[in-house]
Amino acid sequence: MMKPKSIAAAFASWFVIISLLCSCISGDQNETNYEGLSYNYYEKTCPRLEEIVRSSISPMFALDPTAPAALLRLMFHDCQVQGCDASILIEPSGDQQFTELDSAKNFGIRKRELIGSIKTSLEVECPQQVSCSDLIILAAREAVALTGGPLIAVPLGRKDSLSTPSKHVADSELPPSTADVDSILNLFAGIDMTIEESVAIMGSHSIGVTHCNNVLSRFDNENATNANMDPRFQTFLRVVCPEFSPTSKTAEATFVPNDQTSLIFDTAYYDDSIAGRGNLRIDSEIGVDPRTRPFVEAFAADQDRFFGSFSSAFVKLSSYKVLTGNNGVVRGVCDKVD
């Protein structure tokens, strides 16, 4: 039988071990910075920030079930062009006629006004504190969580840009709808993502729709069309998206769901990829490419693993080329430069 002193010593040892473990876990979230960002950035200057964002967005989701996918896409397209700096919200001014928003690859970008509305509320609560770029990230984070996905802890402290790049910059930096596995892996490798994280971030296609003008581009390349595509699904796409010009108004107004549960953030996207039911070329190819298929299969079988890898990838993408400190500003109005 263990003596009291031995029991006390053992307890003390376990207490030290547990304390160290807890310190490591909390340190990852509270102290680690991503290029100057912090998990407790607004703790003193705007403590109700996340509560206000959530209460502003939740009613919108109830009225418009497509809003979550729109907010997630807004974040992706802002971060992939010049970094996460809210430049996609800026309206053209002066001599600048065409901004990044005019890029054909930004067709269908929506809910910019929702970010502006949240910003207006926050200017009353904590004026000139919260950047528009942080609001885009928080809105996308809520979009994932409120559709059934993980609630991702994201570091904050981004500043806004003072300018928006041209449409030509957006054209060159945003991936085309015809992107294949090589180009997507190269794109996300530039954000320091692993292959597993790259496959996970593609899971954002779990919610939302694909416009027919992007689907039709697959049929321009017969090899890309047949790569891991269920013949019945190909027939379905051709019926929903008949052979009209990809640039026609009809093609822009018609769409197909991204997967069989397009309003829920889940693993159905990976089931569809394996079965050859991907809307875009990349959606199909990740299900057969030997570099990506193991992760597609793993995510299809294990939602927790998908959520964990997606969360890691989300933080990396949302921290890409951010402006911090004196390198940017906090815009008073999101669509204008003060």
TrEMBL record:
Species this protein is from: Brassica napus
GO molecular function: heme binding; lactoperoxidase activity; metal ion binding
Residues that bind Ca(2+) 2: 259, 261, 266
Keyword vocabulary terms for this entry: Calcium, Disulfide bond, Heme, Hydrogen peroxide, Iron, Metal-binding, Oxidoreductase, Peroxidase, Secreted, Signal
Binding positions for substrate per the UniProt entry: 175
GO biological process: hydrogen peroxide catabolic process; response to oxidative stress
EC number: 1.11.1.7
Family: Belongs to the peroxidase family. Classical plant (class III) peroxidase subfamily.
Disulfide bonds listed in the record: 46-126, 79-84, 132-334, 212-241
Protein name as it appears in the record: Peroxidase
Function statement: Removal of H(2)O(2), oxidation of toxic reductants, biosynthesis and degradation of lignin, suberization, auxin catabolism, response to environmental stresses such as wounding, pathogen attack and oxidative stress. These functions might be dependent on each isozyme/isoform in each plant tissue.
InterPro entries listed in its UniProt record: Haem_peroxidase, Haem_peroxidase_sf, Peroxidase_pln, Secretory_peroxidase
Major localisation: secreted
Residues that hold heme b according to the record: 205
Entry-linked SUPFAM superfamilies: Heme-dependent peroxidases
Record note on cofactor: Binds 1 heme b (iron(II)-protoporphyrin IX) group per subunit.
Residues bound to Ca(2+) 1: 78, 81, 83, 85, 87, 100
Residues of the signal peptide: 1-27
Active-site residues, as the UniProt record annotates them: 77 (proton acceptor)
Cofactor(s) demanded: heme b; Ca(2+)
Subcellular location: Secreted
